[in-house]
Amino acid sequence: MRKYSTMLLSLLMAGSLLSACGGNNGNTASEKGGDATTAPTNAATDNSSGTDAAAKDDITQRKVTIKIHYPTPDLTEIRAQEDDKIKRFQAEYPNVEIVKDDWQYNVNEIGIKMAANEAPTFFNTFATEAKFLVEKGWVADITDLWNNYEHKDEINPVLQNQFIIDGKVYGVTQKGYVTTTMINKKLLDEKGVAVPPLDWTWDDMLNTAKGAADTKKGISGIAPMGKGNEAGWNWTNFLFEAGGEIQNIDGGKVVATFNSDAGVKALDFYKQLRWEANAIPQDWALGWGDAVGAFQQSRTAMVMAGSDGVIEQALNQGGLKPEEVLTYPMPAAEKGGKHTGVLGGDYLVINPNATKDEQEMAFRYITFDYFSEKGLDALDAVIKQREADGKFFIPPLLDYFSADSEFGKKTKAVYDKYTNVYQYNPEIMNLLDGKPEAQYNTQDYYATMSNVIQELFSKKGTDSKAQLDAAAKTVQEKFFDGIKVQ
């Protein structure tokens, strides 16, 4: 689940172009009989027909209009970068007219957009939405385009596999994340709280949050998200760390399983943060922007989210220094346990109502800078401009390419040229354990769990098991019972 648009780095670093569709290479000469004087005339006519057919089959010779996913007005810097990409793309494909559309994917709006035929030719979405969009018929099957893409085997498989369903491809990864915990070391230092070990546990998180909290100054030790679907999303990390699952498939049916012993354990931990440690904000009804904003303003010592969005705001808007913003994996429930975090990401999908030409050009646009030297040049220019502006550049924790690939090494070489690129602790990659979000009605589950979290934060002494049983019953009857898994 992603709640911000600034993480469109892959729109700067996107990859290599597809080769143009081949024309008719065969000679379709007529086999009519004739004397020697008529043969050359027929041959000339046939060659002309072949040339015309080749031109007709070449998509670069046909006028195509695509409506692209475009950043919102507040993202002026990202818009400038996208405009540069449009300029370079149209230099390569002058036959393509590009229409900008800054609509951002919303699960409550996509159906209306599709019914009114107003959705862009391609649009952004989240990892959770794959099965939902496929089952609704709101995303194109791009398997053929994917199979003809020369760099398909270099794409990060952990991310790309989220949009490969039953062997068919329905989207292209931009970048991804495993939920992390961001720590404001400055606040810890001010309270004399030791930085926890990287291989930390729930107890370490509890003690750190308790020690860093300063209620008199309005500073919380940790800011778990408490409103919107974000609240359920944040809590799900702890469900996973405790060994729980959101749902299972049993006999072709989707069954809610988050009301397990693991779920109770995870909910009880939230109760400890709220009532035992008094470590969460007094005004706990925080969405993604609220919680990240509190971290940016040094009003909370910890926040849980995809790392790059938090770091971007903390360094470039909050004025914190890179050494004061620490990226940690999610804590393990117990020593020796897994540091499991929700694995999510940003994807671009193509409108099934678009024509074949529009779909192909949309695919070419999406992958235009992927794995290309021009993409690296664009990345270099962005970092250099940020350096000139006195800003930091924050790479995504997981990118569309594999970090150990040749292109990954080239990208790292660009990063290493500059001192304004945020550097992750390399040891974190050995601890991260990403777990994909559930594929059926995940947002509905998140919303239901948000109500549970709000009740827990507002009322002392809630019964975790009773809360989860009621939530599971709601999710099961309202959403899961209507699903038939083939």
Give the helices and strands, then pairings.
Blueprint: H1 10-13, E1 14-15, H2 39-57, E2 64-69, H3 76-92, E3 96-101, H4 110-115, E4 122-126, H5 130-136, H6 143-147, H7 157-160, E5 164-165, E6 168-169, E7 172-178, E8 180-184, H8 185-191, H9 202-212, H10 229-241, E9 247-250, E10 253-256, H11 261-276, H12 288-296, E11 302-305, H13 307-316, E12 325-329, E13 339-350, H14 356-366, H15 373-388, E14 398-399, H16 406-415, E15 432-436, H17 442-458, H18 464-478
Parallel strand pairs: 2-3, 13-15
Antiparallel strand pairs: 4-13, 5-6, 7-13, 7-14, 8-11, 8-12, 9-10
Helix pairs in contact: 10-11, 10-17, 12-13, 15-16, 17-18
Region (Disordered): 29-55
Keywords: Signal
Protein name: ABC transporter substrate-binding protein
